[in-house]
Amino acid sequence: MDETATNGGDEVDRIVAAWRRERPDLDVEPLTVFSRVSRLARHLDRARRGAFDRYALETWEFDVLSALRRAGEPYRLSPGVLVAQTLVTSGTMTNRIDRLEKRGLVERHRSPDDRRGVLVQLTGAGLERVDAAMSDLLDVEARVLDALPPAVRPQLAALLRTVVAQFDE
């Protein structure tokens, strides 16, 4: 068995060692990275959901509200831009806007440039909710990063950017 897996390694080390033992014909090196990325993503998802739950928000609600917030004053975007930024279909976005509007977090306005167009805008309640949730989220994520020295965080961000870039093209 791999010495790392028996002397203080993590669960991924144990999984990799088992695969190396059972299938020595396979190069399991990708598992050493992507199994950790996957496990981290699950932990982050739980932590993010916790932050959003404290503000009675679903993850998808935060996604829409934060896209509007990032747009800057007057915190208004077209549904098409929201679709592009949140990677959902237009039908899904319509449903999401309807639900957020019923909760008083967004409102629809006619586009001043196109009589048929609609713009979605944060309400005061939506702005307060997304700002509070964002502050909480950043506290949660900063605690996760406490495991790394501040000097290496930009390197990690750059490496992850390189890997993710192939999907964002």
TrEMBL record:
<dbReference type="InterPro" id="IPR023187">
    <property type="entry name" value="Tscrpt_reg_MarR-type_CS"/>
</dbReference>
<keyword id="KW-0238">DNA-binding</keyword>
<keyword id="KW-0804">Transcription</keyword>
<keyword id="KW-0805">Transcription regulation</keyword>
<dbReference type="InterPro" id="IPR036390">
    <property type="entry name" value="WH_DNA-bd_sf"/>
</dbReference>
<protein>
    <submittedName>
        <fullName>MarR family transcriptional regulator</fullName>
    </submittedName>
</protein>
<dbReference type="InterPro" id="IPR000835">
    <property type="entry name" value="HTH_MarR-typ"/>
</dbReference>
<feature type="domain" description="HTH marR-type">
    <location>
        <begin position="30"/>
        <end position="165"/>
    </location>
</feature>
<dbReference type="InterPro" id="IPR036388">
    <property type="entry name" value="WH-like_DNA-bd_sf"/>
</dbReference>
<dbReference type="Pfam" id="PF12802">
    <property type="entry name" value="MarR_2"/>
</dbReference>
